[in-house]
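Sequence design from tokenized structure. All designs in this work follow the same two-part layout: the structure record, then the generated sequence. An example of the structure record is given first.
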């Protein structure tokens, strides 16, 4: 990958290019922005260029020893901290600090990439601070984070922060079509639904589970709007099976209600998020009053906070379903 292949993020890229051109690499950078927005990809390109022995700006040469090892993921001058766990511990940072003391072997720089830096414990952040206060000349540390506020002020003040912006609807749509990830109709929906985050759009377009969950969730919303209270318990099974994706399912439900509201109020079908389900939405507008839609959205929000507060899952879901099903008299 090179910087030219990135869609959007012009401001961030211009600043990074200037830093590379002027050979004014600082020691610490924070890449801040939503999950899936491209922080890691850009950090990796930046790292590959810093590690390359040639004088390059857009892309590493790919031929020098440092590049070859980097591309083979065996360059000891590149150190990554990445975890699926909930936190990055002080021991992880201490281990990294031992490595920082060793001069680069093949490259002009040593690059340390700490992904999801919001997971650094307070102790780990304080420990990392020591390296940021007196970094060796060859060290380049990049922290990526979806929550800049989780980093202590002293880390932020010793780093240069890059704020990653969301992509436009058109940029995301073009990305999906150019990469063969979606046809025109699907791309319209995914681009709207992913809210300007290309990583999210890519994930949605390749996930069968998301497609299935979305179809099923919409089917359930339409069904319970017409059915009797006792039938609600038959749809609970879907929520039980998809406990892990409950947040996503609730998002789908809210967006569907949002679309009914928007079309009901404005009559404008062009601002639908579920643009590929236009017919279903238009056909159902008269089955939902505005008041009912607001109430249903509220019931879903309540379920979300109940789940966060660890209220019994089944009970919380069934209460939501009953509220959504309830007729307004
Ligand atoms: Zn190179």
């Amino acid at each position: 990958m090179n910087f030219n292949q990135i869609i959007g993020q012009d401001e961030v890229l211009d600043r990074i290019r200037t830093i590379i051109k002027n050979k004014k690499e600082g020691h610490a950078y924070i890449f801040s922005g939503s999950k899936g927005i491209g922080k890691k990809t850009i950090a990796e390109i930046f790292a590959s260029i810093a590690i390359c022995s040639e004088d390059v700006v857009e892309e590493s040469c790919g031929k020098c020893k440092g590049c070859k090892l980097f591309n083979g993921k065996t360059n000891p001058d590149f150190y990554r901290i990445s975890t699926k766990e909930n936190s990055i511990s002080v021991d992880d940072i201490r281990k990294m600090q031992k490595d920082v003391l060793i001069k680069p072997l093949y490259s002009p720089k040593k690059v340390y990439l700490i992904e999801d830096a919001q997971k650094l414990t307070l102790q780990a952040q304080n420990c990392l601070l020591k390296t940021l206060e007196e970094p060796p000349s060859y060290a380049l540390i990049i922290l990526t984070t979806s929550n800049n506020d989780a980093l202590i002020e002293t880390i932020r003040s010793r780093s240069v922060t890059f704020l990653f912006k969301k992509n436009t609807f058109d940029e995301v749509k073009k990305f999906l079509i150019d990469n063969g990830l979606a046809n025109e109709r699907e791309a319209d929906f995914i681009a709207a639904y992913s809210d300007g985050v290309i990583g999210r759009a890519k994930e949605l377009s390749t996930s069968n589970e998301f497609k299935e969950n979305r179809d099923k969730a919409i089917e359930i919303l339409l069904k319970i709007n017409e059915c009797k209270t006792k039938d609600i318990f038959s749809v609970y099974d879907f929520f039980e099976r998809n406990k892990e994706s409950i947040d996503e399912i609730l998002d789908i439900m809210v967006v569907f209600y949002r679309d009914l509201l928007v079309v009901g109020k404005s009559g404008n079908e062009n601002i639908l998020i579920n643009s590929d389900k236009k017919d279903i939405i238009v056909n159902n507008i008269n089955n939902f009053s505005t008041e009912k839609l607001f109430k249903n959205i509220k019931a879903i929000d309540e379920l979300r906070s109940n789940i966060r507060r660890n209220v019994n899952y089944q009970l919380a879901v069934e209460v939501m379903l009953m509220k959504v099903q309830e007729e307004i008299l």
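The chain has two domains: 3-163, 207-325. We note this feature because it recurs in several other targets discussed in the main text.
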